[in-house]
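ingest -> validate -> predict -> emit
validate: passed (alphabet ok, no gaps, 119 aa)
predict: started
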Amino acid sequence: MASMPDAWPRRVYAVVRQIPPGRVASYGLVGLLAGRPLAARAVGNALRRCDDPLVPCHRVVRATGEPAFPNHRIRLRREGVRFIGRRVDLARHLWSPRLPSASPGARPGKDRAPSARRQ
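emit:
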């Protein structure tokens, strides 16, 4: 069983393994999908320590589309990713994962607090 400190990196690696060749995701998107919105820096820290060759770390880029490391740009180009200047063409290559649907029986807005202005 994974210890608590290992759980976060494993979730990050699982998300990154899902990014298909020719697509990229931002650090923030990976954090969101791994269960920690606003954790872009924590994603970067987890990927920096990754030594698993099956985790395509080069497919995770900054929110601006810039690869974090120069060799990542080379690897992305080999996968067919196009660049506009120094940035990935995010309109063409941003990964759009399928998000899990809401649980059965859940209705939008059902969890909201009642409005104080109702009459």
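Residues 4-50+60-93 form a domain with the Arc Repressor Mutant, subunit A fold (CATH 1.10.10.10).
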